[in-house]
Amino acid sequence: MSYASDRATRLTIVYLIFGFLWIAFSDQVLAYLVQDAQTMARMQTLKGWFFVSVTGLMFFLLARRALHQQRELMRRDGLTGLLNRGMLRDEIEHQLELARCQQQKVVLFFINLDGFKQINATYGHAAGDSVLEQFAFMLRRQYGEEALLGRIGADEFVVSLRGDFDSQELDNTALRIMNCCRLVRLPEESGQFSCGIGVSIFPDDGVTAREVMAAGAVATEQAKAAGPGQYRQFNRAFSESFEDRLKLLQEVKQAIRDEAFTVVYQPQFAVDGGDLTGVEVLVRWEHPERGMVPPSRFIPLVEQQGLTHDITRIVLQRAVSELRSSGLLGTAIKRVSINISAQEFESPENLEDFVYMLTQNEDVCKYLQFEITETAIMRNLDATLAAMERLRLMGIRFSIDDFGTGYSSLNMLKQLPLNELKIDQSFIRDIPEDTNDAMIARTIIAMAQSLHIRLVAEGVETEEQKQFLLQNGCDEMQGFLLARPMAVAALRDLAFSTA
Ligand code: C2E
Ligand code: CA
Ligand code: CA
Fold first, then answer.
1. Which residues, chain by chain, have CB under 5 Å from ion ligand 3?
2. pLDDT tens digits for range 464-479
3. Quick one: 85-234 is in which CATH superfamily?
4. pTM reported for the whole predicted model
5. Which of 212, 365, 476, 487 has the fewest beta carbons closer than 10 A?
């Protein structure tokens, strides 16, 4: 029997017992107290009225409670108990009315948990749910009744506060929210969680709940675009920059059609001995008016459109043709790393295109290595694993780029056919002074050694960093200290002068 029928049956039994007892005992009491028949008839009527009134009141209270509970359930998100999107909007509307009367502001913080999809993919949905519940708990503990708290998407939360805010207070609140996020824990994961926050303000960014929430969504996009753990306030100019981005996107699409990209090569060296071990191919786009547009500006745009494979195709073909015709491929250069984007392995057509391209260049497959970022792999582990397996059989090697910034587990690393890990630049930048980064770098080196995977340190800029890597047994390095990305002619000079 369901919980509801169970409770309803129990309540009915209590009601029946009460009714029987009332009828049996009240009649006896009346018979004892009242003797004449007329008074008895009047008392019986009064007794009937009393019974109907009490049970009516009981019925009213029970029905009110049930309907209230039902409404609360509909208002709230089942997992975290926070307001759902629709209810949050209604409540914010109410909050705006109060703020209007008291000439206050309402500030909406839109929070996005970084890397949440990866947590679900790596540790399963129970772990993902636990992260959401913990975060909701932290927010509730921090704000209690003071704020409206809502969950409006899988990993999207809103904190809405009314009051007189200055910019210092906004920053402090954002920091407090980020701290709530840092307190979230997963049993197998020692890293800290982070979140991006977009902020919108009534009445500056909108006067209705819908408007302020739309502004908040735009601010969230800005925060996300800035990278993990970022906080951005809604900026009207962003709408203009949105148009600007659209223009840039159209120009990249034209550049793809014209194959207007070039490539440069950044050499990689053995830490011990300094031999040239390979190169990383990096795309370059020289715009006729804008000048050199950095890949960090246009790759994310192209990624959003699902068009990165078109760029990879151009980069791969250009690099192979340049390195082949310069006589470097297979002689001085035996490893060529190509950057592959997150979604490229998610589409079967792209995979088929890779297979086709590689079949056309069968002799060079053994020199090629694909670099995929840690976060990209975890976006769709199964599809990526299958694609990697297929390409590995054709001779392609694999490297995880920006290692240490995502949430990959040892278990996942063991499943993948990996030849290399590239420790992210952010861990190299401040070693050896930053003891925390130094410890992380040492741990990653030890881990790569025990997994028998080659480790490359990126962004090596100083002699001290190089010494640290040497002392701690890192295999290879790449960075401005040794060589900047260069055109094929310069690479040829470098390779043949060191050979
Ligand atoms: P990445 O794959 O992590 O590439 C390394 C970036 O670090 C390159 O920037 C390189 O020039 C830079 N770098 C190398 N040594 C140092 C150093 O010592 N110090 C500092 N501060 N930086 C160093 P770049 O070429 O601007 O590329 C940026 C990002 O754009 C790349 O990061 C990669 O994610 C993406 N990208 C570049 N080329 C391609 C490509 O052909 N395809 C795809 N999908 N992405 C690409
Ligand atoms: Ca790379
Ligand atoms: Ca990298």
1. 401-402, 458
2. 999 999 999 999 999 9
3. Reverse transcriptase/Diguanylate cyclase domain (3.30.70.270)
4. 0.61
5. 487
